[in-house]
Amino acid sequence: MNNTNTAKSNLYFYGALACAIWFLLTGWLWAYLVNLIVAYPFGILGLVLWYKGKKTEGNSKRYKVVEIILLTGLAASIITFIGMMMYN
Predict the structure, then answer these.
(1) CA 3 to each of CA 35, 55, 63, 84: distance values in angstroms, whole numbers, following the listed order
(2) What are the residue boundaries of the structural domains of the chain, listed by start?
């Protein structure tokens, strides 16, 4: 892999990681549907960057971390939404 591909792959990875962490931290904010504006755009952007990075780098294990964080954020968001619907 040359320097251009390495730099591009690092950009995709760290961008996807930052978006995934933001999505995980804000995905539970269902009050006034805030997470549709604050969390989900970053989750979708993180998913796109994860996909492009995985395609660029091939079968790298470091993208597994981003995948786990995105799935955990989605699960937390869905569980919080169900909890709010049951108790409100």
Answers:
(1) 37, 17, 19, 48
(2) 3-87
